[in-house]
Amino acid sequence: METKKSKKADLESRKALFFQAGLAAVLALLLIAFEWTTREVTTGSLGELADVIMEEEIIPITRPEEIQPPPPPPPPQVTEVLNIVEDDVDIDDELIIDDVEGRADTRIDFSNIIIQAEDEEDDQDVFIIVEDMPDFRGGGQEDFRRWIFSNLKYPTIAAENGIQGTVTVRFIVNADGSVSDVTVMRGVDRSLDNEAVRVISSSPAWTPGRQRGKPVRVAFHFPVRFQLE
């Protein structure tokens, strides 16, 4: 008797189909496994890369320090500088006058001395010309010349240095006859100027000048000539 397989029990005809289905299932599993591994690796790598990128990008932002411009210089101060010069030289204002009247080569020339009134009036109280001019001891100009000659001393300093010349002195005869305001109008040398002022300032009282019977002040110019021979 011949044994026959039924079509349901015969699996030989479905072997190819089962093989293909199994192969497809294996391939599907392999594909799923491969994608899963790749995704994990990619995701992990991307996370680490993102961390690195973020770490590199996070850079502290620092503002550059603003450089303040220097303050403007203060305006220069004007300082007054006092130049102090030390002067150790003592100046002796006192003029020592020696009498050189006895020297043969010294002579005081009064030949050209003229007492003259001023040409113009200096102020309201001083006259230049009056009805009665001042008089010296009743002898007038001659007596005044003699008095000057007997009291004037040629300064030794000027005599030793050969200094000579004419000193013009202005003075006022007051209403009481006294002499004041003795001033050198034109000098030659300090020693000669001082001597001329000294002598005239020590003049005795004059008889005052009068205008309309009233004593008044009268101004004079008096030239004193110092000459050496």
Distance between the termini: 203 Å
Count of β-strands: 7
Count of helical stretches: 4
Q: What proportion strand?
A: 15-25%
Low-confidence stretches: 52-56, 80-102, 118-123
* Overall pLDDT score: 72
Number of domains: 2
Basic shape: rod-shaped
Task: Explain the overall architecture.
This protein is α+β, with helices and mostly antiparallel strands and 229 residues long. It folds into two domains: 16-57; 106-228, 2-Layer Sandwich (TolA/TonB C-terminal domain). The chain is built from four helices and seven strands. It has helices spanning 15-57, 140-151, 156-160, 190-201, and strands spanning 106-107, 116-117, 126-127, 165-173, 179-186, 209-211, 214-228. Strands 1, 2, 3, 4, 5, 6 and 7 form a seven-stranded mixed β-sheet that branches.
